[in-house]
């Protein structure tokens, strides 16, 4: 029944979407080669794709079914990194830490994790909320998966810095636009059980997929420890970004 676990179902959905992207990319490039050789007619879509590739832009047919990126180079790097994470997960088992930036549906990933925690503890799903703790570890330093929940990495602080030793928000370093956040342990707890760890001062930091902060790019809030009133960071517009490109 392992294949019916929520995170495994989520993985299948992500791989299905990635396969569609790879198929469109392969079809476009194959047809372009044939059109350049004169074997098939150069359609308007192919001409647009050729112009985009020449200008290092993402062809519109690719962008519509994939993700936003600043340049074609960044987009292609993301394609390789996303595919590598899915392949590793599929053939070698669940990652120790997840690169949440590489998901089409990060909200679905968090929902699947909540479902697994709820099932394991026999919680009512409606009673389960997310909780998190920022570790002091970098991705390379994480040796094993958490007992419950997931580790995620690849998040960037915009508008603030991070003190790894004290595990809390600080003022950003001069001339540093973004600060990498250490690995975050994201799990879930039951409100009725009341077993959430309590922190003194916490800033509820919004997490976005991209630097463009819109409702479409919003994922969820992360609780970050702070030595000052959370209003300080709210006025600074502090947020976490999955991708800074």
From TrEMBL:
Among the record's GO biological process terms, what is one? Answer: microtubule-based movement
- Residue ranges of domain Dynein heavy chain C-terminal in the record: 3-242
**Membrane-spanning parts:** none
A family per Pfam: Dynein_C
A GO cellular component annotation here is: dynein complex
Q: Name one GO molecular function term.
A: dynein light intermediate chain binding
Matching PANTHER family: DYNEIN HEAVY CHAIN 1, AXONEMAL-LIKE PROTEIN, DYNEIN HEAVY CHAIN 5, AXONEMAL
Q: What is this protein called?
A: Dynein heavy chain 8 axonemal
Q: Which species is this record about?
A: Clonorchis sinensis (Chinese liver fluke)
The major lineage groups are: Eukaryota, Metazoa, Spiralia, Lophotrochozoa, Platyhelminthes
